[in-house]
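One record is kept unedited as follows:
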Amino acid sequence: MINNLRELEELHQRFHQLRMEEYSKFKNSADTNAPTAGIYPLDFHHWCHSPFIGWAMNDEIFNVAGLSDYQRIIPITSHNSDYKNWDQYRLILSDYETDEDYAKYCDELSKKIKWIEEYLDDMEFSKLKDRGFKQAMKIAAEFSHLPYSLAVRGYEEHVLYVRPYANWKDLDNIYIQIWKQVTKQKMSFTQALEEIHTTNMFPSRSLLINLQIQGATCFLSEQFAMCMEHIPKNVEVDDEVLQHISYVIHKLVKVKTYVHNVRKKLKIGQRLQMTPNRKGTLHGPIEDQVQFSMGVLGRPAVL
């Protein structure tokens, strides 16, 4: 912990100034309705968790010695519950360079192990998970600031993130075909589905479609009804209907993982000028610079 009172006071003053500068930009923005000072008092304590600015001081570790300014902040949103493991994410004390490598690593994962999306059935993927893991670790070795713990998390959460989308693959196209038959051919939902099944339009979904027709599941009918609720009555163009259907499906399977948190924090760090320079210090919007030192507590958490 920081025991020097002067150092602690300077730290709080520095973040107070950052917050005030952020609020000033927000208040003067032409495209937003700034809250009144009477509702949201313009002072450090009331604004440290303001949802309007998008970041806050991480109170649980803020006074820990040896951390950079970047490590002392966390992104905030009114929908933190959208994240898979928010309570864990906010305690990972990685520095800017580690976060930057993690984001790049996850981008590479999505490109180079895209093949796993075809094998995400539990039984099939269990046979190939070691292959995917080894390939992921080989990719991770290319990033000098990426610790093993985050490399493993990145791979596991990548699988977690793409699995729902793989499971829902082709459903938007199935629903648009049903919509065409129901609205233009005046068929019932079941009749439309039977025609799709007969023509084998979606071979990978034949089992699910057959189960729906046989009455063994109501998955497709329930999800189709949800999609139809979000389509405006005046929308008749196929592409526009497909956009609405895809939007609903995306909302149903959306899950935010650590990389989403990292990308948001990197943007905040850039905005606050907390990117490290070549000498390993952090630039801030004030004259004082914080020594870029990880320390024991500054290392990314092993999860």
Q: What stands out?
A: The longest helix spans residues 5-28.
